[in-house]
Design brief:
Number of helices of chain B: 7
Number of strands of chain A: 30
Oligomer: heterodimer
Bound molecules: FE2/S2 (inorganic) cluster
Number of domains of chain A: 3
Number of domains of chain B: 3
Structural class of chain A: alpha+beta
Shape of chain A: globular
Strand order of the largest sheet of chain A: 3-5-1-13-10-11-12
Largest interface: A-B, 84 and 84 residues
Largest sheet of chain B: 5 strands, mixed
Chain lengths: ~750, ~240
């Protein structure tokens, strides 16, 4: 067999790749046939509910479960993070931390059992004021979180006798003194939670010594390790399944301590266990994104090109006390001179975890707002200021891409027609309108992925891959790639994903999955096809390289009469199926995938200055992504990302009670998310210049979820002429900012 | 807790985003204003998110005039008159529900929600337990053709009534339009949305885009499929294929 050259079909030949293909499991999802972890009911299962700690910071002294144990139907009370009688108290650092689990015959009984637990707490002082750096310092709740400085070469180096910091300070101040425009501002973005609609958890049972777990996970292939480690068994004794997952967004990579508790309870009771978090717990401990607040000073030349950036930001990632990583400040833009510093704040909250495009949305929202304030100060067009500053960005090779994307975005949102200087637009009653921009970047390198592909002698095609479909349409893309390569209709291939018993495939995080499965499935299909071509070539007495697979046939290129149906061809395989396992390792050089995209988003908003309510009129997303796999699901990804950006920009925030530290809006009636009527008109544009396809597949999940917040914040500033510093821009914050500006 | 001036105005402005079936209770939550959205069910049921904890296994108050036609034998062990015309039902009881055209028997306690019955006794898991207070719409089912949250509806209250879940809508135009317009990502909110759309179109078969934007705000999608759902519903209205 000749060595296989991996490639994608040329555009004009592709039947499925790059086209609009409906997701294969759409009907199952729409009609309730798709079974999620929460939906799986195992015979004789017990349902577990747990008591979440009602205090942000306390010690759990003792647990009295006697009343719980008396509830008919309660089978087991299991301590999670609580002392056994006689043990030392357990310190708790986050509201919602699971203390005691109750396993019962039904969910309602388990909940009743939980309500009857009597727990003694010793309250400790809590601190949750992540926005208040001074207060945090006074309470010794801060941690250094990195920083650095870079000055233009022309400025030179400190002399041997100079104190380095003093010298740097002097140079930075000189740069400000030379600047034509100086902007000072403070900006912020609150902590938000992942709020997966399917809460974290598992439905599991022991089959002898084997643990069989249905787990709502973004990491089907490697969640077994976590269970195995904690339970002191080996990973090959744990099977993890997840056919469908109701949202993850970066928060579902591990068994989590409640998954381990479920396995322990299953062991103790000898019964299958279903243990999923309640909504309140999902919001409190199911994952959150760090907050960020910043003091910025920037200096620009007469053209509005930023020459010096100086910032200090802080925020919290919960009790581990980190903040948004400093490496991306200012975001995308990189003036020749910059100094930046970060301080983490230790609050009594659950530690944050990865959130769609970790760090980027916050970095974007709290730095590109300063660039927009420069436009406001100069009474210049924001678009011009963004364009001019493309001369200093962290990936200079992308500046033309951004320029083109900004031009396209401006056309789509009708920038020239609707633009007015900040705060100088027409008023309709109490309503003003405005425009804003954000730009972003992302890597999106394909993750490792292996695929086992079987071709049966009767023509059947099935694949196995331990990947997962978070809603991006992974399952459909696997099928598209196989069907495209083998020249078959998409229904002719049976794709199996979602089990750790299948070949390894990397976790879905960081926009790595579509690239990963495209790599592994294309490779497997090309290899299998090469083997099949050899068999067919012999039979038809033609060279194998003259064969092609299309329309359910394998035929000789240019001789349509010389062909075999797929079925006939497969009958040449013999009695055993043809099997190929492809292996793709992240970072392997490949013509099939690559990385690094840009992207811009623009928002047009209306602000009611009487009520403070912001409404989205229109948002535009312009996004490059290499080779588009499924145009339909790719578009949905971007729509969804825009809507998530609207959520963080206008609605959602974790609210901690300043006195008790409690997370007080941990239900969906008070943790506000946008609804269908809140999203305005959304426009998605795939930026596909001529050479874009040749870049291969690049992940798409994160990039469009980054710059919408900055765009909306800037649009509100453009509308009102007033900077509302902190996202979400709630009506109260908008009104407060307007009042403060009036004086 | 009083709503501040700005909260009150905010509520007024938001009202047009929310269907009639919501009442607003503005509350002041620290540094922002948030609103509690409580959906009034057709039968006047309002339940808090603490439903399964807050409603005791003993107390289901049957109002004589209320629409709680329990058509089955209530094998109450502790029935007692709480007030004239009211009767307390307690303990476990067998009831019959008409689900998707089939008569099905369930064992319920007073506190058992319709959602619990569907998911745990009938293995109809399309309706999802997302927010027990009903503010996500994920557990939407039809009762007598009206959209209702199964999570805030007590099973006893719907005994004998016609319950339609997403599982029966396989041949309906709504799921097909959802697939065509890719109105689902993770899909966890989707069954609830499908049923809500069905109910909405039954009432407003010729809805304008504006009406669609205003009328489907009882459901939450975290993945952000609203744009696709909107397209799906617009196409259903246009295609006039929503029956
Ligand atoms: S599709 Fe995931 S919540 Fe709607």
């Amino acid at each position: 067999m000749a060595e296989v050259t991996y490639n994608w079909p040329e555009n004009h030949k592709a039947r499925l790749i790059g086209k609009r293909v409906s997701r294969l499991d759409g009907m199952e999802k729409s009609t309730g046939a798709a079974k999620y972890t929460y939906d799986i009911n195992l015979p004789k299962q017990l349902v577990v509910r747990a008591l979440g700690c009602p205090h942000a910071h306390c010690r759990v002294i003792s647990v009295d479960a006697s009343a719980t144990e008396k509830v008919p139907g309660v089978v087991l009370v299991h301590l999670i993070k609580a002392p056994k009688p006689g043990d030392e108290p357990v310190e708790i650092r986050a509201d919602g931390t699971l203390l005691v689990a109750v396993a019962a015959e039904t969910e309602a009984i388990a909940a009743e059992g939980v309500s009857k637990l009597k727990v003694k707490y010793e309250l400790l002082e809590s601190f949750v004021a992540d926005h208040d750096l001074q207060a945090a310092e006074a309470k010794k709740r801060t941690k250094k979180a990195g920083g650095g400085i870079e000055l233009d070469e022309a400025i030179g180096e400190p002399g041997d006798d100079d104190d380095e910091e003093e010298w740097e300070e002097q140079k930075v101040q000189q740069l400000f003194a030379q600047s034509k425009y100086v902007v000072e501002g403070n900006y912020g973005i609150d902590t938000i939670t992942h709020c997966c609609l399917e809460p974290h958890g598992s439905t599991l049972h022991w089959d002898g010594d084997r643990l069989k777990v249905n787990h709502s996970t973004q990491n089907v292939s490697r969640t077994d390790d976590g269970y195995a480690d904690a339970l002191k068994i080996s990973a090959d004794e744990v099977d993890v399944h997840c056919e469908y997952i109701g949202g993850g967004f970066g928060s579902k990579f591990k068994p989590d301590y409640w998954g381990i508790a479920a396995a322990e309870i299953a062991k103790q009771t000898g019964r299958p266990i279903k243990f999923l978090l309640t909504r309140d717990q999902e919001l409190k401990i199911g994952g959150n994104r760090p907050s960020g607040f910043i003091d910025v000073k920037l200096g620009a030349d007469e053209n509005g090109v930023v020459q010096v950036w100086d910032s200090h930001h802080w925020g919290t990632s919960g009790f581990n006390g980190s903040t948004v990583s400093v490496g991306n400040f200012p975001y995308v833009f990189r003036p020749k001179n910059w100094r930046r510093r970060a301080t983490g704040i230790i609050t009594d909250n659950e530690p944050s975890v990865a959130w769609r495009a970790p760090n980027h949305p916050q970095a974007c929202a709290i730095t590109q707002t300063a660039y927009d304030d420069l436009a406001a100060k100069m009474q210049a067009d924001s678009l011009d200021i963004f364009l001019r500053n493309l001369e200093n960005i962290d990936s200079p090779e992308k500046s033309l891409v951004y320029a083109e994307q900004l031009r396209i975005g401006a056309d789509l949102i009708d920038w020239r027609k609707h633009w007015h200087l900040h705060g100088k637009g027409k008023r309709r009653g109490s309503v003003v309108e405005g425009l804003g921009i954000g730009i972003h970047k992302w890597g999106g390198t394909a993750n490792s992925s292996n695929c086992l592909l079987k071709i049966h002698p009767d023509g059947g095609v099935e694949s196995y891959c331990g990947t997962q479909d978070l809603g991006t349409g992974t399952r459909t893309i696997c099928a598209m790639v196989l069907a495209e390569t083998l020249g078959l209709p998409i229904e002719a291939v049976k794709v199996n994903i979602g089990s750790s018993t299948y070949p390894f495939s990397g976790a879905s995080g960081g926009s790595t999955t579509v690239g990963a499965v495209s790599e592994s499935h294309r490779r497997a299909a090309q290899e299998v096809l090469a083997q099949l071509f050899d068999l067919v070539a012999k039979r038809l007495e033609v060279p194998a390289e003259k064969l092609e697979a299309s329309n359910g046939n394998i035929s000789v290129v240019g001789y349509s009469d010389k062909s075999m149906s797929w079925k006939q061809a497969c009958s040449l395989i013999g009695i055993q199926p043809l099997e190929v396992t492809s292996i793709y390792k992240r970072g392997d050089d490949s013509p099939l995938s690559s990385s690094n995209v840009a992207g811009c988003q623009m928002a047009r908003v209306a602000v009611d200055t009487d009520t403070g309510v912001v409404k989205i009129i229109k948002m535009v997303a312009v996004q490059d992504m290499g080779l588009v796999m499924n145009r339909k699901t790719a578009e949905s990804q971007i729509y969804g990302a825009l809507i998530m950006s609207i959520a963080a920009a206008l609605f959602e925030q974790r609210i901690n009670d300043p006195k008790t530290g409690a997370f007080i809006n941990s239900e969906l009636d008070s943790y506000r998310l946008p609804r269908l009527g809140d999203t305005g008109e959304l426009v998605v544009h795939f930026h596909e210049p001529e050479n874009e396809r040749a870049r291969g597949v690049i992940g798409l999940g994160e990039p469009p979820a980054i710059s919408g917040g900055a765009a909306i914040a800037n649009a509100v500033c453009n509308a009102t002429g007033v900077r509302v510093p902190t996202l979400p821009l709630t009506p109260k914050r908008v009104l407060d900012a307007l009042r403060t500006a009036k004086g | 807790m009083g709503a501040s001036q700005s909260d009150a105005r905010d509520v007024a402005t938001c009202l047009n985003l929310i269907p009639d079936s919501y009442t607003f209770i503005p509350v002041d939550l620290g540094n922002c204003c948030a609103h509690l959205f409580h959906r009034l069910e057709p039968d006047g049921f309002i339940m808090s998110q603490q439903s399964s904890q807050g409603v005791s296994r003993r107390g289901f108050l049957k109002g004589s005039g209320a629409a709680v036609a329990v058509s089955t034998v209530v094998s109450s062990t502790e029935a007692e008159a709480a007030a004239p015309g009211l009767q307390v039902v307690s303990g476990e009881t067998s009831i019959t529900l008409k689900v998707n055209g089939k008569s099905m028997t369930a064992k319920v306690e007073p506190r058992t929600t319709l959602l619990d019955v569907l998911r745990y006794q009938f293995d109809l898991t399309g309706a999802k337990p997302v927010s027990l207070g009903g503010s996500s719409g994920a557990s939407t089912v039809l009762i007598g053709g009206k959209a209702v949250m199964a999570s805030t509806t007590l099973a006893l209250a719907v005994a004998g009534k016609e319950v339609t879940t997403c599982e029966s809508l396989g041949g309906d135009a709504v799921p097909a339009a959802f697939v065509e317009h890719d109105a689902q990502q993770c899909g966890f909110c989707t069954p609830g949305f499908v049923v809500a759309v069905r109910a909405f179109l039954n009432k407003y078969p010729n809805a304008t885009e504006e009406q669609i934007r205003a009328g489907l705000n009882g459901n939450i999608c975290r993945c952000g499929t609203y744009a696709n759902i909107l397209q799906a519903v617009v196409s259903l209205v246009k295609g006039n294929s929503n029956g």
